[in-house]
Amino acid sequence: MATFAIPADMENFVVGLIGMGDMGRMYAEKLSAAGWRILACDREDSYDSLKEKYTGRKNIEICRNGHLVSRASDYIIYSVEAAVIDRVIGQYGPSTKMGAIVGGQTSCKSPEIAAFEAHLPADVSIVSCHSLHGPGVDPHNQPLVLIQHRASDSTLRQVETVLSCLRSKFVYLTAREHDRITADTQAVTHAAFLSMGKAWHANRQFPWELSRYVGGMENVKVNIMLRIYSQKWHVYAGLAILNPEAREQVAQYAKSVTDLYKLMLEGNLDGLRKRVYHARDKVFGPSTTWEKRPLIESSMLSYFSLGTPSDAPARPNNHLSLVAMVDCWAALDIVPYDHMLCSTPLFRLRLGVTEHLFRNTSLLDSALRTAVEDKTYRSDDLEFTFAARGWAECVTLGHFETWEKRFVSTQQFFEPRFADAKVVGDQMMKMVLEGQKPAMDE
């Protein structure tokens, strides 16, 4: 591992962290290990437990509240839920040390920047950031967005120096660019996999026990769904509800699912094929223009599984969830490959499994024929359509409480398999990062 040395002119530089959730703790531990002095806090009712947890931990001092962090830190990072960012900055922002730098870690930058502008003193610089990965992922070589909103170049260099110990890849964007890219790379795929989980939950199904959902692309779909539901609900709620670009995309995804399902009910194979192939060419380009190397090797798709099906032999799947993703992207003129610089391993998995379906004409045709001709799982697709529309309505109304209830109820249903899914999911993402094929058992 590369060594890190703090520059002589920053030896007394203090980093403040307001919010010690999963990402806040990751930052505190990584930065303190590199030698930076950390002042950190969470809600005051967490003070004693945090104090005990980090007692004796070099370079980390737990403070009772954000006022104590803000007034003594040179660079303060807010790692709090997007839904409460304005309230928290309004509470602690006025206490910011004169001439300090402030940033935030929320997944939606528009409300974050608006809160900074509303509540921070004019002498404070604003350089926000966003690590485009979860707290359990090694930040090495992962994209780390830096937003130089109200700061000099020399101030930006200071932030780069602090965060360079993460060994991430800096990506420089404006707040608006960040929100558009995160929406384009996450909103639709999140909606798809959230809807999968909700539909399986509604049917009281554990998909790894059913032949329809074991093997090939199904392995990746199930693991991504479980990985999403194993996270904190507010991570996905903030992106979907507070980001205007994401709201439009979630609504369009529900419309795409509904329109495609209606074509299935009508038995309109020609209409379905025409619509889907138009979307394919618009999003991926003609098949002759695709790169030879796929995002996911086919061997990976068949390697990872959470279980052995207990029902009948495998039956074909219409992959409504994936087909609707591409239909949605086409309707909104989104080409996800345009944002690969900001892609995460999880996004590459989500896009890769979709690409696998669409770059294989025989596989795609089989899915479309199944959608129209095979009614075995029509009720499952109905639940999926309900789920997609339910998430879209929740986002349109801006109901964080409803989102939380919907998410947590399904999370609890699948929770017993989260540990197994994490092991398998980590292996899949490692292979995506390394671009290697899985080593098959002897």
From TrEMBL:
Gene3D superfamilies: 6-phosphogluconate dehydrogenase C-terminal like domain, NAD(P)-binding Rossmann-like Domain. Pathway: Amino-acid biosynthesis; L-tyrosine biosynthesis; (4-hydroxyphenyl)pyruvate from prephenate (NADP(+) route): step 1/1. InterPro entries: 6-PGluconate_DH-like_C_sf, NAD(P)-bd_dom_sf, P5C_Rdtase_cat_N, PDH_C, Preph/Arog_dehydrog, Prephen_DH, Prephenate_DH_fun. Belongs to the prephenate/arogenate dehydrogenase family. Keywords: Amino-acid biosynthesis, Aromatic amino acid biosynthesis, NADP, Oxidoreductase, Tyrosine biosynthesis. This is Prephenate dehydrogenase [NADP(+)]. It is an enzyme of class 1 (oxidoreductase). It comes from Drechmeria coniospora (Nematophagous fungus). GO terms for molecular function: NAD+ binding; prephenate dehydrogenase (NAD+) activity; prephenate dehydrogenase (NADP+) activity. It catalyses: prephenate + NADP(+) = 3-(4-hydroxyphenyl)pyruvate + CO2 + NADPH. Its EC number is 1.3.1.13.
